Amino acid sequence: MQLSEELLTVLVKLCLRAKKFNNKMNIEQTGELLLRARAIDSKLVENVSFAVEEEKKSKSQPPPTDTKSELQYTSRKQQNTLSGFLKPYVRENVPSFNPPKRMSKLEIAQAKLAEKRKMEAKEPAPARPSGFNIKKKIVNISDSESDHDSDNETQDGNLFTKEQVVAKMKKTKAALQSLQAPRFNSSNTQSMKQIELMQKKKQEELMRLRLNVDTTPLYKTILSWSYNNDKELPSDYDESKYKPITDKFESVKDYRKTFEPLLLLECWQSIQRAKQVGSEIPFRLTIGSRSATDSFFDIYTSVKKEVVNETRCFGDNDLIVLMMVDNLPPEEDNRGIPRKLVEKCTVNCFAKVKEIKNTNGPYADVVLRVSSDNKVVHKISPSMELVGLKVNTMTTLEREFSSLYGLQYYDLSNEIIQAVPDPVETPDEKKINKLKDVYDVNDSQAKAISGTVQGQGFSLIQGPPGTGKTKTILGVIVLAPGVKANISTSKASTGSVDNKRKILICAPSNAAVDELVLRIRNGIKNSKGETFKPNVVRLGKSDAINEQVKDLTLEEQVDAQLSKIKNNDDSSIRAEHRACIVERDELRKKLESNSLTETEISKAEMRLQEVLTKHERAKGCKYRNREIERRNIQFKILNNAQVVCSTLSGSAHDVLAGMSLTFETVVIDEAAQCIELSAIIPLRYGCKKCIMVGDPNQLPPTVLSQKAASFKYEQSLFVRMQNNHKDSVYLLDVQYRMHPEISAFPSREFYTSKLKDGPNMKLLTERPWHEIEEYGPYRFFNLRGRQNINDKTKSLYNTTECKVILEIIESLYRKFPNIDWSNKIGVISPYKEQVRLLKKTFVDKYGFLITKQIDFNTVDGFQGQEKDIIIFSCVRAENNTGVGFLADIRRMNVALTRARSSLWIVGSVDALVSNKTWRDLFEDANKRNLVTQAYVGFTKNIRIGEGNANSSQTPNTQNITRADANKKTISHHDNAKKRTISDDGKKIGHSDNPDFSKMRKISKTSNPLPVKKYSGQISANKMTKISQPKSSGVILPRAPNGAPSGLVKISDKKKYPTKPSGRK
């Protein structure tokens, strides 16, 4: 069917909401209609779009005033005034005016009373009849009843009769019953629809209030602080405002009064940390103008584009400091602004980046908001050049603040302030067995999935290390209410947002979210046991997301679909543009020869201007069309998504807020690692069921302010709910990660022996190096070293432990050269300086590529990861200074549960036994005969297949003396002097212990580890020769005859079996 131009014009105006064309269509509908209209007649659509936009612009801008006439009027007015002033004074005959006499309040009152008395008197009202019953008599009753009633009235003084009172009570009761249980007739159905409509409007209003929180109180406080203050607490600190977080709160107001001061304390500490690190680059900005708004000034500045786009010195929503720096070097100086000038500057003030606009020129327009109370602001004037320095990014803090102030409008606000989780329910055994069969989970996982999906409000799942938290979350996703029906099919619906409910998956870190997204995209099982891949959207910046899931981000999916849309470029405009260029060149030639008339010049200018205008219009239309297409695609992708994943802070993305999406079910992974205000951010989208998965026995949230931490600000919402209701937690009690010898102590110490090992875990985690007693599944290396402290960072380090750990790993490489050690070893420590020293020790010997093979990290940075071998460096070596970070049992739990096959602890017993938990650990290892006395060079005495010469069961710590260690050290040095001489006369070390120090360093192109993998089963009765791998990497010394330096005896059960069911 062909549409006429008039009808098509009306349709386009409807889509663009032109004057007198308002409508209730949403963005998706208008965009779809515009795209179809453009397919019919693109030129007409572009012309109408341009006309409507110009009309809107003309209405929004005030009409231009005639500057000349205004100036003439002003000057004429001034002339009249001056001439009138200069005229000689002329007295005119004006009658005199006498003002009325002023009256006192008493005289005014007397006058009013006199006026009132002049008014006519009114008749008094008739007297009230006696008694209380003043109702008229009922006419339609019998004579007998009338006589009876009249008699009672005369006797009782017109009171209600007994019968009337009973009848009235019955009538009232019937009315109440009718309200409580309405009948569903046609009128009631209509009223129910009205009630549903009112409830929907109420929910929309609550959503608006949750998403649009005024952040003025936050910035009124922050922008009034002084950047020169280096103290731990801000200048406006008031002790009376701060109180510890309680397990329950009486009201939302009480909750806000407790959390808001602590949130500001954390913000202040983040500012102090940024000043200490000092990694940001100073930049220049030029002041344009300023305008006053409430308690702030908005300052309009200009900054070079490369500062914003290339070096990225600051961005939207950043907190910066503006400085008036003296002796600023010229802008042409390529060295930039010296850091010393910035640090010495004392005339400064905080500013928040409100808006950044990129212009066509080399500069970008930046709007900054500053406090009007700051005295420095009044010294700022136009054209002044200032220095800016980024202090902090305010996005997360602002979202936490908005969640705090929007909490009163949350559906789960009462459960949050009271910290009440849903109680644990005992599910049906048949249902549990079905879940186990379909989803391949164990009992505890099946109970957690079934109970949390059926529950309301908050549900808690505690998942100790290796218990399959991710697998449990996948089961929750499949069975979540409202998602189960949609997720069972791969076909995406094309209805509106409300027709398809979704589930929101969040975690505190990008790494945790990416791990979940990776597992979901690989496929999950539905209720029929069939594997399928649901539609997943990952929200967040692409540069912070794992490469394996980057294609699932909203930005990447939108760009991919936009690239498929063909751009309908108007070739006629290009042809006109080329013709104008040819004409311009001809005119230039004529101009040079002076053969061009003024008429021809004016015509050429007019023609060129028309083409340029047409080009600009086409360019504007193309940009608008592209933005419409982008919004439509964005809408469709999120509408068709079945699962949306983001970080806790990223869940407050503007796209979700703009589309008014609702997420009734929210799942938070690692919920015990986030502060409470972060945990409630994703609940703003109408959440009615929140499932939190975490482990309170592992690391708590990271809080910078120690003062705020003393008020329990680092406590998570998960922990607060668990403190109130310890029995309302689903515990995943089977671990599938660790060798039983590793899990024994953590299970008993941290989980009251409730954590059990999965089936065949000993067989699954056996490795070839377990043949050496010192390199078994679990070992404590007792070492006497010396701890030192970095004067700048105040972090501890221990060089002796670094040397011993290097020897242990060298010994492993030498004794098992056929194993691919890539990504099998992790070296962790609670101190950053020790991690830095360990990394430097290995890099100095093997080159930088060794860091790609061995993971060096802090305990906090290693949470959520696992390796075959974990070597834990304790650092502490003095028994009179305590154990510091090691005293935190949550950090200790994380360190002891990262290993799959072997956990080796390197530390000083004398220093560690001052802490009860560490004393228990040592006593447990000592009873199990798993303590080895270590020193620099002790690995030379380790043999494959022989008993441990250095392992002894030590009865108590007092028996371990420095004299014993010194004897061992002396013995070691004596043995080291005995050398064997090779055929060429060079020393090559012991014949049975090759000198590993003779290895050459790894080249930048070589692999530092052998790449030949352990192949599997080898007979225990045979001594197998291990050939040198041909791949580049570590070069092991060989015997003179060319054979390898040692023989390895390996038991026959050494294949790496597959993991059992239930593993995450």
From TrEMBL:
Biological process per Gene Ontology, one example term: termination of RNA polymerase II transcription
Key words, A-Z: ATP-binding, Helicase, Hydrolase, Nucleotide-binding
Q: Which residues form the DNA2/NAM7 helicase-like C-terminal domain?
A: 713-909
Q: Which Pfam families match?
A: AAA_11, AAA_12, SEN1_barrel
Q: Which residues form the DNA2/NAM7 helicase helicase domain?
A: 441-706
Q: List the GO terms this entry assigns under cellular component, sorted alphabetically.
A: chromosome; nuclear body
The residue ranges flagged as biased composition, category Basic and acidic residues, are 980-998
Q: Which InterPro entries match?
A: DNA2/NAM7-like (IPR045055), DNA2/NAM7-like_C (IPR041679), DNA2/NAM7_AAA_11 (IPR041677), Helicase_Sen1_1B_dom (IPR044340), P-loop_NTPase (IPR027417), SEN1_barrel (IPR056474), SF1_C_Upf1 (IPR047187)
Q: From start to end residue, where is composition biased (Polar residues)?
A: 1016-1031
| Region annotation (Disordered) ranges | 52-75, 970-1064
**What region holds the Helicase SEN1 beta-barrel domain?**
280-391
Task: Enumerate the GO terms in the molecular function aspect.
Answer: ATP binding; DNA helicase activity; hydrolase activity; transcription termination site sequence-specific DNA binding
* Family listed: Belongs to the DNA2/NAM7 helicase family.
Protein name per UniProt: Helicase SEN1
Taxonomic lineage of the native organism = Eukaryota, Fungi, Dikarya, Ascomycota, Saccharomycotina
